[in-house]
Amino acid sequence: MKSKFTAALFVLATTLDSASAKLGVGSMTPQQADRPYAQIILKDGKSFWISAGQLNADSAVETFLVMRGMDCRSKGETRKIKMPDNYMALTPVSESVWQNALVIGANFLGEWSMVQLQANLSGIRKSLPLSDVGVIWASASSKAGYFIAGASMNKQPVLMYFSADLKNRKILSQANDGNGEVSSVFESRGRVFALFNRHGDSKDQSASPGAELREYSATGTPVSRTPLNGIASIGTALKDGGIAISYWIGEQLFMEKRDANLSILWSTKLHQSNGIASIKGYLLEAGSHIAWVGANDNKLLIHRLAQDGKSIQTSIDTKTNIGIPIPDIYSVYSSGNDIYVRGAAARSKNPPEKITEFCFIEQPDS
Question: pTM, whole model, 2 decimals?
């Protein structure tokens, strides 16, 4: 296979302009097992792709993490860190911009724990179990500590705050939040935002699906609550102090931008769900663009929008036959205008157990 290719561009529903997007393969590596992976973003802005594996040491199986740069064209350093547990799942993304890196995972018994790494990434600084957690979707840091987002064992939203030394904890989600999850959490200029998604309840007709944006201080003090349209919402901070949010209304995916006062500046339709598709996806800035990265019709799809909401281009992988990762989350990083997309998934022409590690590079046409 050639190291690069130009992907075909599909014009999607009403709002997407015709443009020749550049989507290429940086690397593809077959592997024997589907190892859990995640992404961490550090204080210095560097982003690493981490995968968990096992090795035999002194007649015992031990877990280790392999850390690689998100830029798949880089030949940077690879780090290997021994972990305390047999991790079988990892939280998709941890943004430890203000604190030491935090890796969160679950073992084969479904028991979640958090591991704080040394500042130089040489090993573990502290480890702590997380109780009554069903899934963790994201974590972020503030100048005071960490915020961890997900859902409980009984499918209720979970949002926790930990002090920087992990000694103090506050539960920020509430008992009356109903069924749902906290799908993302992120920091913006000292403010912390979390997206609460409420699932419908067949036993309680008044508990309709919906989403809410909640703001907290750096130490987890509640500041505001803003109702949102749609469900399965995710968000990200923008360099101009605003935020971007994506969400679903029925089978239609939308993106909106809000200013620093949380007022809506615009809302744009992205695409209609088709086949195997990402429920959440990933949002980030790439240069002056805002991008949504996910899958539709079991193919990688990247939308680029301008800061005013106009479509720049849409890139779709139509060449590799690599399907959507499980649980449909890609690891995504931007450097300048370029977007790097890492993950591991089966290729449709192979049996399900055949897994391929991949890294795509997407660039603006001009």
Answer: 0.90
